[in-house]
Structure to design on (219 residues):
């Protein structure tokens, strides 16, 4: 399945893009997505366990992804 | 009244205070987060805020829902601004109101602390020497 992954702040800078598209097997998990993104990442651009949001909620690494999910990698937040 | 928003215009505290106003309220609080001129010993000239707008709005709404269940009958309005802000400009304003002061104050503290932990907003500080850096970034 194709999944768009949104990137922000330091992650967007590291990839030079605000989104990337990944091709993952059906039933892939958030953890597997992170592994796939890290394989494409410039050196050390992503920590081993970045925060991931799926459909606007934080998701654990075991969460199963579906086609059409809105996935985002969330750098350490700094609001306020 | 419960409302949360990410906005790209200057924040107006008076409008938020008016939104939470009510005849039943004996206590109203206002928290204003502003751009400060130093951080970590470096001279700051401004801060550029960005957000994952759609999720930030949803996450703020979740925080308000949690506050509503902890502090019955509290009114809360919160706005977080994105864009490039100058010194003293408000980046976030939280207005709370309740019949009594304790829930009004506690709800305000709850919202600001959870916002800082969970809401997907980022800031890049601009320094007086012309450099810029993301804040809180580990990589």
């Amino acid at each position: 399945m194709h999944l768009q992954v949104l990137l922000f702040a330091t992650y967007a800078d590291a990839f030079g893009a605000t989104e990337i598209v990944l091709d993952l097997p059906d039933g892939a998990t958030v953890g597997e997505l992170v592994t796939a993104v890290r394989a494409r990442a410039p050196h050390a651009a992503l920590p081993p366990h970045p925060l991931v949001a799926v459909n606007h909620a934080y998701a654990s690494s075991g969460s199963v992804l579906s086609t059409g999910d809105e996935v985002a990698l969330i750098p350490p937040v700094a609001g306020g | 009244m419960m409302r949360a928003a990410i906005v790209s215009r200057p924040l107006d505290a008076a409008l938020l205070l008016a939104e939470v106003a009510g005849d039943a309220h004996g206590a109203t609080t206002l928290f204003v987060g502003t751009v400060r001129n130093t951080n970590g010993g470096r001279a700051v000239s401004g801060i550029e805020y960005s957000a994952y707008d759609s999720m930030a709005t949803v996450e703020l709404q979740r925080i308000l829902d949690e506050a509503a269940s902890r502090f019955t009958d509290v009114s809360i309005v919160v706005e977080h601004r994105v864009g490039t802000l100058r010194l003293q400009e408000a980046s976030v304003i939280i207005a709370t109101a309740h019949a009594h002061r304790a829930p009004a104050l506690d709800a305000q503290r709850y919202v600001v602390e959870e916002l800082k932990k969970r809401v997907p907003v980022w800031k890049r500080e601009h320094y007086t020497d012309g450099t810029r850096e993301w804040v809180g970034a580990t990589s």
In short: Chain A touches chain B through 22 residues (CB under 8 Å). DSSP finds two helices and five strands in chain A. The two ends of chain A are 37 Å apart (CA to CA). The longest helix of chain A spans residues 30-40.
